[in-house]
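--- STAGE predict ---
source: upstream dedup step, 1 unique chain passed
mode: sequence only
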Amino acid sequence: MNPAIMVRAATTADIPFLVECNAAMALETEHKTLDRGLLERGTRAVFEEPRRGFYRVAERAGEAIGSLMVTYEWSDWRNGDWWWIQSVYVTPPARRSGVFSALYADVEQQARAAPGVVGLRLYVENENTVALATYAALGMSDAGYRLLQAGFIAFDS
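--- STAGE serialize ---
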């Protein structure tokens, strides 16, 4: 039997783990190799400016096994913030054992308790059927939008 999953606020001591998670996620999902220095500075910047968001870390038996970041999007239509779940990563040995569900439940509980939060959002690749099924099982649904972007920083592919 697996010990319980504990979710906690990330601290600056978690930056190396968060950087490794983000680098692994980018490589696995988008086949992109991220610049580690830029990634470390970007991760640290979240701790330096809380308006940018926050990280949560999942642990089992004291070992970090997953993480995610939440960022904010103001909705004038709803006069409140959407919380965007981003940078989701679960270490390979811990996958399919409830780690993301624990992270999501933690964030959802915080969001429901925070004044002015109107809901949770995330984006997922269309072909990631495992993640889509997980998100649907947690009560999330397709928002009916396509994500478009105009990037200003090039990544290796």
